[in-house]
Q: What sequence folds into this?
């Protein structure tokens, strides 16, 4: 069980991770409140970019995310104190102009950036930068942000489900797999310092992806990879045409057993198909995943490999659990 101090879940690893918090294009002039590991965080946009503060005004504890942006500063809605992008209070309307603003009048600032169409926040000091993932940054591949999806389950369970192949024929039966083609070929995994990935795994799928030229069942070649405790990605290629779909899945832990899931989907085909169709397809697939993940017990991912029955097809999931243990991730694990 992860310790909670003043509402924030204590996890020395995830504290220093970049967490996805909001879809970039949805943050316009109004500040927004989000939850990161139980902590309330306000995010807002200035001319210089995006910023994140602890969602608490030092004066009387009001939520800064309920305030507004004036002259690129965040203004508290209670008594109008105005904070600049560095969190320094630059105006206290109730005091005379020649009075000095107290040194302690500051907002707590968190690291904040935009990448792959998502706003990311780190509550501590980032241990590692977000990688350059060309498939989600190259606009010619039309990266689309899907979700975020609210799931009543641990983020670790969601990431693990993303690493899983053997559910495709059942949870997504008739769509991403078929029970008659459930047998998986042997595949291997490779572990590097900050990534674990599979070899190519062919999977027969009854329904081709939106926009694909394949009409009947197609065998797609999958490669899956976990690259952060809460982030994974996959590619899915039609070997005959080279048409490929890439998916990035990244999870924001709200609490031990609740999370928000962001996905970015890119492609090198089907540009004439509407973005809505791709997003709708992803929504359907993810609802199927969420439904099963929310039934799992224990809710927290067991890092003791004897606790559940690991099968040979679970090699990526086992490696993921080992990695979480090595790193010392506590949120969402037991
Ligand atoms: S509580 Fe924010 S200005 Fe008073
Ligand atoms: Fe799934």
A:
């Amino acid at each position: 069980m992860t310790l909670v101090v003043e509402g924030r879940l204590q996890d020395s690893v995830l504290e220093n991770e970049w967490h996805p918090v909001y879809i970039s294009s949805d943050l316009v002039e109004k500040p927004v409140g989000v939850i990161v590991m139980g902590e309330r965080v306000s995010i807002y946009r200035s001319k210089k970019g995006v910023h994140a503060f602890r969602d608490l005004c030092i004066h009387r504890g009001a939520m800064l995310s309920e305030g507004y942006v004036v002259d690129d500063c965040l203004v508290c809605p209670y008594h109008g104190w105005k904070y600049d992008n560095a969190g320094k209070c630059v105006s206290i309307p109730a005091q005379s102009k020649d009075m000095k603003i107290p040194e302690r009048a500051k907002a707590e600032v968190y690291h904040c950036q935009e990448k792959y169409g998502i706003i990311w926040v780190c509550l501590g000091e980032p241990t590692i930068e977000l990688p350059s993932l060309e498939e989600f940054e190259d606009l010619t591949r039309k990266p689309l942000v899907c979700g975020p999806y609210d799931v009543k389950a641990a983020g670790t369970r969601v990431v693990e489900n993303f690493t899983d192949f053997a559910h495709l024929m059942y949870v997504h039966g008739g769509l991403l797999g078929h029970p008659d083609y459930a047998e998986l070929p042997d595949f291997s995994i490779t572990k590097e310092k900050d990534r674990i990935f599979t070899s190519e795994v062919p999977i027969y799928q009854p329904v081709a992806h939106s926009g694909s030229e394949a009409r009947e069942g197609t065998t797609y070649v999958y490669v899956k990879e976990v690259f952060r405790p809460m982030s994974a990605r996959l590619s899915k290629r039609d070997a005959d045409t080279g048409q490929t779909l890439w998916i990035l899945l990244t999870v924001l832990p709200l609490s031990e057993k609740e999370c928000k899931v962001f996905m970015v989907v890119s492609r090198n085909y089907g540009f004439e198909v509407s973005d809505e169709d791709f997003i709708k397809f992803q929504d359907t697939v993810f609802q199927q995943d969420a439904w099963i993940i929310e039934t799992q017990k224990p809710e927290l991912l067991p890092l003791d490999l004897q606790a559940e029955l690991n099968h040979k097809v679970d090699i990526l999931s086992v490696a993921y659990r080992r990695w979480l243990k090595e790193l010392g991730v506590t949120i969402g694990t037991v």
The chain has a mean pLDDT of 96. The domain at 134-327 is CATH 3.90.380.10 (Naphthalene 1,2-dioxygenase Alpha Subunit; Chain A, domain 1). The chain has two domains: 4-122, 134-327. Residues 57, 59-60, 62, 76, 78-79, 81 surround FE2/S2 (inorganic) cluster (ligand 1) (CB under 6 Å).
